[in-house]
Amino acid sequence: METFRPVRLVVGACLAFALLPLKLFMYLVQALGSGSPSEEDLMQSAPEPGNLPWFAINIGVALGRFVELLPNWINPPTIQMLQLGALAHWKASTIKALAELGVADLLARGPRMSILLRTDHPNSVRPMLMHLGNDSDLPWMKLAEGVKLGKLPFELAWGKDVWQYLKEHPEREHIFSQAMAVQDKVAYSTALKEYDWTKYDEAIDIGGAYGSFVAALMRRHPGMQGTVFELPQVVNNAKSVWAEEHTDLAGRISFAGGDFFDAQTLPRPANGSTVYIMRSILHDWDDSASIRILQSLGAVMKGSRAKLVLVEQVLKDDFVNDISMRHGFDLHMLVACGGKERTELEWRNLLGRAGFHLNKIYPTKAMQSMLEAELVPQARTRRCEGFVASRFAYISGHA
Ligand SMILES: C[S@@+](CC[C@H](N)C(=O)[O-])C[C@H]1O[C@@H](n2cnc3c(N)ncnc32)[C@H](O)[C@@H]1O
């Protein structure tokens, strides 16, 4: 039987009150430091956690986890479970409804509310919340049914896979591609800083949506050429976006439409040093589809010195006590497209099975890491396969 322990209440309340002066102190420092922020400050301010030192980020994360656990000391388990199961959903649904309805735009001239939901804020998360709301809520409701039937929740909800759905609803596809650019706003420039991109003079972004990542990369490295490779209908929109938003990069960018399962349509590397980038691509797909994508990329990289950089999450092996965004996305990928987030070992195995070697993982101060990989020369792959086969024969012989 569950009991509500008064001791917990007292300890929890003490801890909460102990944190209050700290919070007040932080508000005071903020107020003294900047005064009341003007409309212009709010519109232009783009906080850059990428500039914070690692120790500050680690302390922040640890403090955050600690504070997150405080309600567990105060609320009885029944309330906690209801909050997790219902309140969290109601809060999220309200915010997604505000995003879809454009309420923050309507309030722009009124009290300063929900500024990050405004369409015109440089760090607006509105398209991401619109995608997560309108397109993804229904599939989430089909999670239990999907598990029972062994079917993808997205397909149960909409009758087709996410890529076909987006193709048939161009207005939702536009929101989805804009939502992908939100990754640059929440991940800031950390992926651009934590890896040495100067060794490349060409970057080919495979499944690059509207090319926001490659644009930021090219701006940072003025000698770099770029290519956005996408589905034909997306690449057409990408061209219009570049004609409006990235005119400073005109002449250095190319566009190619195709299908990353078909090597014939993929851009080949130029003579210099090329990096193929796949950001948030393989987490959309299960292992067998991911291997097919990697293999078609391997076919065009063959014989060149090109490298592959995946920008993806790397899950920790133990996820006890960690119902974080990372694991939330792991489930979301399953719901939305049958994909998954992967641990380091899973990435290493996946790349290995497709003929790549994972050189190194570069963590960033955002959720994603950069995984640098290169194609293993065929002779070496065959030697490895031979070695594995001989070991297998040896083990079977002794079993
Ligand atoms: C999760 S989004 C990532 C977009 C982009 N890399 C980013 O991080 O902003 C996946 C992208 O893959 C593209 N895509 C899906 N299937 C594709 C295919 N068969 N060939 C090429 N691109 C594809 C989608 O259009 C979409 O833009």
Automatic annotation (TrEMBL):
> Which residues are in the O-methyltransferase C-terminal domain?
140-356
Q: Alphabetically, which GO biological process terms does the record hold?
A: methylation
Per its UniProt record, what PROSITE patterns does this chain match? Answer: SAM_OMT_II
Cite the InterPro entries for this sequence.
COMT-like, COMT_C, SAM-dependent_MTases_sf
Q: Which UniProt keywords apply?
A: Methyltransferase, S-adenosyl-L-methionine, Transferase
Q: Which GO terms of the molecular function aspect are on file?
A: O-methyltransferase activity
PANTHER family cross-referenced by the UniProt entry: O-METHYLTRANSFERASE CICE (PTHR43712:SF2), PUTATIVE (AFU_ORTHOLOGUE AFUA_4G14580)-RELATED (PTHR43712)
- What name goes with this protein? O-methyltransferase C-terminal domain-containing protein
